Amino acid sequence: MLFSQLTASADESVTLAWNPVADARIAGYKLYYGTASRSYSNVVYAGNTNRVTISGLVAGTTYYFAVTSYDLAGMESDLSNEASYTVPMPAPALNSPACAGGQFGFTVSG
Q1: What's the rounded mean pLDDT across residues 1-19?
Q2: What does the alpha-carbon distance between residue 83 and residue 32 come to, in Å, rounded to a whole number?
Q3: The dihedral of CA 81, 55, 58, 60: what is its sign?
Q4: Could you tell me the CA-to-CA distances from 3 to 8, 35, 40, 70 in Å, in that order?
Q5: What is the pLDDT confidence band of residue 96, given thresholds at 50, 70 and 90?
Q6: Which end of the chain has fewer CB within 10 Å, C or N?
Q7: CA angle at residue 91 from 90 to 95, to 5 degrees?
Q8: Per DSSP, what are the bridge partners of residue 63?
Q9: Tens of pLDDT, residues 37-93
Q10: Short-list 78, 80, 75, 81, CA closest to 26
Q11: Residue 40's Cα: distance from chain center in Å?
């Protein structure tokens, strides 16, 4: 299986899609992810779909993802190739400039 799409959202979430396995015996997929390459602390049962959205990610953190398929007997495939995604930091908020004597100042927070 190869990841075919990784789509970010503004709310610290990411949607991952992968190429489905062309085998009628496949019952579903599991998406593994974590903050260290090839060391996954979370698993999401995707069922028989090839797309999952993971939310609640932390800004500034890199996450690593891999997928397996499983059959009706529960036999699981090897891990797919790994995809990674770094959640962007939010843009700093700018306050409106205050004008005084032809000059202005601004404050950057964040």
Answers
A1: 73
A2: 11
A3: positive
A4: 14, 18, 16, 17
A5: low
A6: C
A7: 130
A8: 85
A9: 999 999 999 999 999 999 999 999 999 999 999 999 999 999 999 999 999 988 776
A10: 75
A11: 13
Structure tokens at 58: 């932390």
- For residue 26, give the amino acid letter: I
The pLDDT assigned to 33 comes to: 97
d(CA 99, CA 9): 36
CA distance readout (Å), 5 to 33, 48, 52: 16, 17, 11
Within 10 angstroms of residue 69's Cβ, the number of other Cβ atoms is 23
CA distance 33 to 23: 24
User: Given pLDDT bands bounded at 50, 70 and 90, which one contains residue 104?
Assistant: low
What per-residue confidence (pLDDT) applies to 76?
Answer: 96
Which residues neighbour 19 within 8 Å (Cβ) at sequence distance 6 or greater? Answer: 1, 2, 4, 50
* Beta-ladder partners of 36: 39
